[in-house]
Structure prediction request, 241 residues.
Amino acid sequence: MSRILVTGSADGLGRAAAASLLSAGHDVVVHARSHERATALDPLVERGAHLVVGDFTERAAVRDIAAELNDAKPLDAVVHNAGVWSGPAVMPVNIVAPYLLTALLRGPRRLVYLSSGSHFGGRPSLAGVDWRGRGAGSYADSKLFVTTLTAAVARLRPGVLSNAVDPGWVPTKMGGPNAPDDLELGHETQVWLATSDDPLALTTGGYWYHRQRSEPHDAVHDEAFQDRLLMALAEETGTQL
Prediction:
């Protein structure tokens, strides 16, 4: 049994991943951005899930969650599932929050980050990036950044399995009811990377789509770009990876 945090687990892929992990007997920590949203997680909490609440647009809330979890039983894995499609919250939620949690949480040996095929449209430039969400952020850029973070963690923490998942265009609230991809395969890849002893799941630095490893944007494995991204996030948050 592993202890696993799934961020953004009130609905969609995160909810499906958390429910699947619970059914498999794991010790699951679910997350919602507000107490109002957390009521949707009552069925999972009643099944034994632990709950943390915090709005990822607020860095203090991310730090509070990290402190709360560091004071509890150590985590074995984190599924960085929380994400938003548009608006001012894009950069704070999609890249700053997972960066902070990665820097602050002690112990997890498996890290799974939610990427997207949209990252191929991202720009490998940090010029003028609005990390604080004062205006609308670029979803494609945010997913390129978090996929690059995945690769940087794999390089700098050789004892940690760090992988990114493209779940496909799935019928969640974000993807819409007519999205063509398979919701089950989307969350199953997250669960597989977080828990499986399959030799493929025990690799690191991968970009995965439905349990198949593929090549991400060229910038993802550019170590100079990785280092620039980490430096920018460290300066912005005051927290080193």
